[in-house]
Specification:
45% of the residues lie in helices and 12% in strands. By secondary structure, it is an alpha/beta fold. Helix 9 packs across helix 10, helix 13 crosses helix 15 and helix 18 packs parallel to helix 25. The protein binds one DNA strand through helix 13 and helix 15. It comes from Neolentinus lepideus HHB14362 ss-1.
Length: 575
DNA sequence: AAAAAAC
């Protein structure tokens, strides 16, 4: 293990300038990706208007890159005409999108009473809602020029104090859509706050992983820069500083994972009775069985009568959405694009690898050819993440990294930091990375292990293709995965990539298998949640037993990964 | 079916 850490960190030093030059090495694959998309467009014939971005992508992104502007403006206008009245402006630009690629345009649908009109620009928000010039300045200095769809529609709703259920694809700027209204409301305290503007925590943001909470916290800090709000990333350490009520009263915003917050509520070191804004990010995840009771406890603790709640996600299975709608008051529901559909900017494909032992050789072959780093590789368990990383390092793959929740806090933070600095070329991770994490440079996602739900698939591949960039997503499947192939294939087809005919013709999976894919019935959803009481805390001896089990599992995973026929099938691309 | 989430 130590040797692995040394190897994975030592490796070849990676400096950014060199990287820029190396990029030329990898153009082969990016051409392949775009070719794949053209094929997909041909194959799938007529696409729904909101999905037909290919023309746009070619006219916009490509022509700019090739310094050949022909047809660019025309494509844009053409698009506008075709989409007609429902379509809303949505060019995203952010600090990272220096390539100048505009975001594709999506259809936006809003349901609810008295839906406020969307805002075409951040300046319009200033005119209509007196958005503070301080926030505007921070937007501009961070490179945010135009609101994305979810921002132009969601921000007015939140600024008017309405509850919101927002569904918008991965990488379309959901975080900023609630960051701005929350900061704005802090700046102009609601009338009922009376004497005390500083009466403790007034906004809570929940996220399912520490990494995501950290990232959200950073986004708040960026937008709040220059103001002296106290925005706290809740952790063991920060919670300990808040045992004193005076310290607590100075906190304005808390970003946290659910269990951490519940722990503080239960030991009485936290008050949430003055919380005016509560956001559930990755809400469908937070409302699934494992988190639901914790989240409900937090919601109950936010006892102020004028609390505003908002839920955000790229996916929302019916059961989770029902639960969400039940906890919102007179909500407005916004959907950007099509629910549960990845961005067409992500070129998706399936690769048949017959069995477990064929995966590693297939991946090694792939990584021995020019590819586009950084690549994120998803596996199904912590031991598999560790052992795959070891195997890649043993096989001489440079700059391999690994992130899962079995690592220490510091190891996790370091892995994220290396990813942000561009030092990781190959990042192997579990579901912990699947949601929300915004690494702007990710060019490719490989599902080394088949995702266990369509939601997981959508979020995993959403690590690439962010903020208007193109991305590539490859999913390995074995014979054993075949029964679960159809729902994923449907998602791929719906978002405009192509799927081989034999997969398209697979029968629908049985009810039992569908459930395994995450389409849990509402009844199951609630029953499961009830069984997990709020006092159902992990006991220390369980954790010790767990860690022992993990070690044994890692051993088994290593053996399995090398496999009996590690030099067998190379796997083949079915495209 | 496994992951994640406190101290």
């Amino acid at each position: 293990m130590e040797a692995f850490q040394l190897l994975s960190r030592g490796g070849i030093k990676f400096d950014k300038n060199r990287f820029k030059e190396d990029v030329r090495l990898f153009t082969k694959d990016s051409k392949k990706a775009s070719k794949g998309k053209q094929v997909a467009r041909k194959d799938s014939g007529e696409l729904p208007a909101e999905l037909d971005f290919f023309k746009y992508a070619q006219g916009g992104a490509f022509s700019k890159r090739k310094a050949d502007g022909t047809g660019d403006g025309e494509t844009h206008d053409d698009k506008r005409r075709r989409l007609g009245g429902d379509e809303e402006s949505e060019d995203e630009s952010d600090a990272g999108s220096s390539s100048g690629q505009p975001m594709p345009r999506h259809r936006v649908t809003a349901k609810g009473s008295n839906v406020p009109e969307h805002a075409e620009s951040f300046e319009a928000l200033k005119e209509r809602y007196q958005l503070s010039s301080h926030i505007l300045a921070n937007l501009s200095s961070n490179g945010f020029k135009h609101p994305t769809g979810i921002q132009s529609h969601g921000i007015p709703i939140l600024l008017e104090g309405r509850d919101l259920a927002a569904i918008s694809p991965t990488g379309t700027g959901k975080t900023l859509a609630y960051t701005i209204p929350i900061l704005q409301c802090l700046g102009a305290p609601v009338a009922s706050a009376k004497s005390a503007a500083g009466t403790g925590v007034r906004a809570v943001i929940l996220a399912p992983t520490k990494e995501l909470a950290h990232q959200i916290h950073n986004e708040f800090l960026r937008m709040a820069e220059g103001r002296k709000w106290r925005i706290v990333l809740f952790s063991k350490a920060t919670a300990a500083t808040l045992t004193d009520k005076n310290a607590r009263d100075k906190v304005d915003i808390i970003v946290s994972t659910p269990l951490r917050l519940v722990a503080s509520l239960q030991n009485g070191t936290l008050e949430l009775s003055n919380v005016r804004q509560l956001v559930l990010d990755e809400a469908d995840r937070l409302l699934d069985a494992e988190f639901l009771s914790q989240v409900q406890e937090i919601v109950a603790a936010c006892s102020h009568t004028s609390i505003q709640k908002a839920v955000f996600s790229a996916t929302f299975p019916a059961g989770a959405e029902k639960l969400a709608m039940e906890m919102l008051r007179d909500p407005i529901r916004i959907v950007v694009g099509l629910k549960d559909t990845p961005l067409p900017l992500i070129a998706q494909s399936l690769t048949y690898v017959s069995d477990e032992s064929s995966k590693l050789p297939t991946l090694l072959t792939y990584l021995s050819q020019p590819y586009n780093p950084p690549v994120v590789i998803f596996v199904s368990s912590q031991p598999r993440a560790t052992s795959l990383a070891e195997e890649l390092i043993i096989n001489g793959v440079p700059n391999v990294d690994c992130l899962h929740a079995g690592l220490t806090k510091k190891e996790r933070e370091d892995a994220v930091a290396r990813m942000r600095k561009g030092e990781s070329w190959v990042m192997i991770s579990t579901e912990v990375m699947a949601r929300g994490m915004d690494f702007k440079g990710v060019r490719e996602v490989i599902n080394y292990d088949f995702p266990t739900s369509v939601q997981s698939y959508i979020h995993r591949i959403g690590r690439t293709g962010r903020a208007g960039r193109e991305g590539k997503a490859v999913t390995y499947f074995t014979n054993e995965d075949a029964p679960f192939l159809k729902p994923i294939a449907n998602v791929i087809l719906q978002s405009g990539s192509s799927v081989p005919e034999w997969i398209r013709k697979l029968p629908k999976p049985s009810k039992m298998k569908r459930r395994a894919m995450g389409k849990v019935q509402r009844g199951d959803f609630v029953d499961k949640a009830r069984k997990i009481g709020r006092g159902d805390v992990i006991k220390k001896r369980d954790m010790i037993a767990g860690s022992k089990r993990r070690k044994e599992k890692a051993e088994r995973a290593r053996a399995e990964m090398r496999g009996p026929g590690a030099d067998g099938d190379r796997g083949m691309e079915v495209d």
